Automatic annotation (TrEMBL):
<comment type="subunit">
    <text>Homotetramer.</text>
</comment>
<dbReference type="GO" id="GO:0005829">
    <property type="term" value="C:cytosol"/>
</dbReference>
<dbReference type="GO" id="GO:0006253">
    <property type="term" value="P:dCTP catabolic process"/>
</dbReference>
<protein>
    <recommendedName>
        <fullName>dCTP pyrophosphatase 1</fullName>
        <ecNumber>3.6.1.12</ecNumber>
    </recommendedName>
</protein>
<dbReference type="GO" id="GO:0000287">
    <property type="term" value="F:magnesium ion binding"/>
</dbReference>
<keyword id="KW-0963">Cytoplasm</keyword>
<keyword id="KW-0460">Magnesium</keyword>
<dbReference type="GO" id="GO:0047840">
    <property type="term" value="F:dCTP diphosphatase activity"/>
</dbReference>
<keyword id="KW-0378">Hydrolase</keyword>
<comment type="function">
    <text>Hydrolyzes deoxynucleoside triphosphates (dNTPs) to the corresponding nucleoside monophosphates. Has a strong preference for dCTP and its analogs including 5-iodo-dCTP and 5-methyl-dCTP for which it may even have a higher efficiency. May protect DNA or RNA against the incorporation of these genotoxic nucleotide analogs through their catabolism.</text>
</comment>
<keyword id="KW-0479">Metal-binding</keyword>
<dbReference type="GO" id="GO:0042262">
    <property type="term" value="P:DNA protection"/>
</dbReference>
<dbReference type="InterPro" id="IPR025984">
    <property type="entry name" value="DCTPP"/>
</dbReference>
Length: 103
């Protein structure tokens, strides 16, 4: 996967701050651009998994199961709540936005 594509996706969120679900404050043009960049990353990721012989669906399900054991829902909610209060007045980067989804 080209690291540049992930960088382009990250740039979209770099100066957005807190991003609410559904992106109500975003223009249609911004949402279309986001969709294009997400698609680029997805296509590279799917291609890379194919080249490497990794069943991406199975790997993702396994990771969700492992994370459920490692990070029980109660602990995760407490951590997300703590991080949200800690970062309330800071600019949020893409990593902070997406990380709860990856755990």
């Amino acid at each position: 996967m080209q690291v540049g594509e992930v960088g382009e996706l990250s740039e979209i969120f770099q100066w957005k701050g807190e991003v609410p679900k559904g992106l109500p404050d975003w223009t249609e043009e911004e949402k279309v651009h986001l969709g294009e960049e997400l698609s680029d990353v997805l296509l590279y990721l799917v291609r890379l998994s194919d080249i490497c012989g990794v069943d991406l669906g199975k790997a993702a399900l396994r990771k969700v199961e492992l994370n459920a054991i490692k990070y029980p829902a109660k602990v995760l909610k407490e951590e997300v709540s703590f991080q949200a209060s800690r970062n309330r007045n800071r600019t949020h980067c893409f990593c902070r936005i997406i990380s709860p989804l990856l755990i």
